[in-house]
Write a structure and sequence with these properties.
With about 350 residues, the protein is α/β, with parallel strands linked by helices. The chain has helices at about 5, 25-40, 45-50, 60-65, 100-105, 130-135, 150-160, 170-180, 180-195, 205-210, 215-225, 230-245, 250-270, 275-280, 285-300, 300-320, 325-335; strands at about 15-20, 50-55, 75-80, 115-120, 140, 165, 200. It has three domains: about 5-140, P-loop containing nucleotide triphosphate hydrolases (Rossmann fold, 3-Layer(aba) Sandwich); about 150-210, Helicase, Ruva Protein, domain 3; about 215-335, Zinc Finger, Delta Prime, domain 3 (Up-down Bundle). Helix 13 (about 250-270) crosses helix 15 (about 285-300). The chain is elongated and about 75 Å long.
Length: about 350
C-alpha cells in the first residue's frame, strides 16, 4: 500500500476520479468533504455537487451528470455512494449497472468533474476487471483503520486548533477510556482542549476528569487499579458502577473478560504474533489488543492465570451463594491484588 493511499489529506490539483474504500466512516467522510471543499465554495454546492446512491440509481445516469457542464461554470463533484459491484458482499441489489459505460468513462473522464467513489467495504474484490481498472485510473485512498502514530498526530492537530498541547500519556488514557472510534476521539479532544485553553496541556488528569466514560473503560481502569494494588481507586470505580445499577454478575464477567484478553494476548505475543494478527485471531479491535498487551506485560502470565481462576470462583459465588454480591466483588479484588 502506497503512502498516498494512506494519506488523509487532499490537495490541488484534484484528480478526475477518487476511490475511497474501507469501513472507517469518519475518515471517508473527512476525505470526501476535503475534495468538495477544494473543488468549490459552499455557495456553489447547490449547482455543482451531486450525490448518487448506486443501490438506487444506475451508474450510467450518474456518469451522464458527470459529463454535463455546470450551469454556472466551475468544477463539479459527483459522489457515488455504495458502489456494491466493487465488493463481494454476497447479496444481490435491485439495480443493475452498465459497467461497460463506467469502463468508457474511466478511459476518458470529464476534465470539468471529479467523480468520487465511496465504497464502505472492508475489501474490494480485486478479481473483478472493473476493480482493477478503477484502481489503475483513480486516486485510491484506504479508509480502514489508521495507524496509532497517524491517529495521535491527527488528534494533536485537533488540540492545536484550540491552542492546547495533546500528550502521548493523555492519548493512551483516552483511547483506553473511550475506544478507537475516530469521531468520538475527535469530539473528546476538542472538548478537553477547549477546557485546557490556549497554552494548556491535555494530560492524563484532564482526560480522567473530562472524557466521557463507558462501562468498558471503567472495567479496564478497575482491573488496572486492582492488579497494581490501588484498591481504594478500584473500590471507588466499583461503587460508581453499582450506583448506576450495573449487575455485579455482569461486572464480574467483564472483569474476567478483560483479564482473559490480557492473558491470551500475552500467550500469542510469546508465540511471535503481532498485535494486528492477535486482533484478527481474537476477533477484537487492535486497540483492545494494544491495551491488553500492556496489561499482560505489567502483570505477567502467571498472575493473569491465577486471576482467571479467582474470577471463576467469584462468578460461581455470585450465582449460587447467599453472600452479599458487593462483598464478593470486594473480596475478589483483594485476592487479585494479592496475586
Amino acid at each position: 500500500m502506497s503512502a498516498k493511499e494512506r494519506s488523509v489529506d487532499i490537495s490541488k490539483p484534484l484528480a478526475s476520479i477518487y476511490l475511497l474504500y474501507g469501513t472507517e466512516s469518519y475518515l471517508m467522510n473527512r476525505l470526501r468533504e476535503q475534495i468538495i471543499q477544494t473543488a468549490m465554495s459552499r455557495e456553489e454546492r447547490t449547482f455543482n455537487l451531486s450525490v448518487y446512491d448506486l443501490r438506487e440509481t444506475a451508474i450510467e445516469a450518474a456518469l451522464e451528470d458527470a459529463e454535463t457542464l455546470s450551469l454556472i461554470g466551475g468544477h463539479k463533484v459527483v459522489v457515488l455512494e455504495h458502489p456494491f459491484f466493487l465488493a463481494d458482499e454476497g447479496k444481490k441489489e435491485k439495480i443493475e449497472h452498465r459497467l461497460d459505460r463506467l469502463e468508457a468513462y474511466l478511459n476518458d473522464p470529464s476534465p470539468d468533474t471529479t467523480v468520487v467513489f465511496c465504497a464502505p467495504y472492508a475489501k474490494l474484490d480485486r478479481r473483478k476487471k472493473i476493480v482493477k481498472n478503477l484502481e489503475a485510473k483513480a486516486d485510491v485512498r484506504d479508509c480502514s483503520e489508521i495507524s496509532e502514530a497517524m491517529l495521535f498526530d491527527w488528534l494533536s492537530e485537533e488540540a492545536k486548533k484550540e491552542g492546547a498541547i495533546y500528550t502521548e500519556a493523555a492519548h493512551r488514557r483516552l483511547v483506553a477510556m473511550v475506544g478507537s472510534n475516530i469521531a468520538t476521539l475527535v469530539n473528546e479532544v476538542r472538548k478537553i482542549a477547549l477546557y485546557a485553553g490556549k497554552g494548556g496541556t491535555i494530560d492524563e488528569d484532564a482526560v480522567d476528569r473530562l472524557a466521557a466514560r463507558t462501562l468498558e473503560s471503567d472495567v479496564f481502569a478497575m482491573v488496572d487499579r486492582v492488579m497494581t494494588g490501588d484498591l481504594a481507586a478500584a473500590y471507588r470505580l466499583l461503587t460508581d458502577l453499582l450506583k448506576q445499577k450495573e449487575d455485579p454478575v455482569k461486572l464480574c464477567a467483564l472483569v474476567m473478560r478483560q483479564i482473559r484478553l490480557a492473558y491470551r494476548t500475552a500467550l500469542y505475543r510469546r508465540q511471535g504474533y503481532g498485535e494486528r494478527q492477535i486482533a484478527t485471531l481474537l476477533n477484537v479491535h487492535p486497540y483492545a489488543v494494544k491495551v491488553a498487551a500492556g496489561q499482560g506485560r505489567r502483570f505477567g502470565e502467571d498472575r493473569l492465570r491465577k486471576a482467571l481462576l479467582y474470577c471463576a470462583e467469584a462468578d460461581e459465588q455470585l450465582k449460587s451463594s447467599a453472600l452479599d454480591k458487593t462483598v464478593v466483588l470486594q473480596l475478589l479484588f483483594e485476592r487479585l491484588a494479592a496475586v
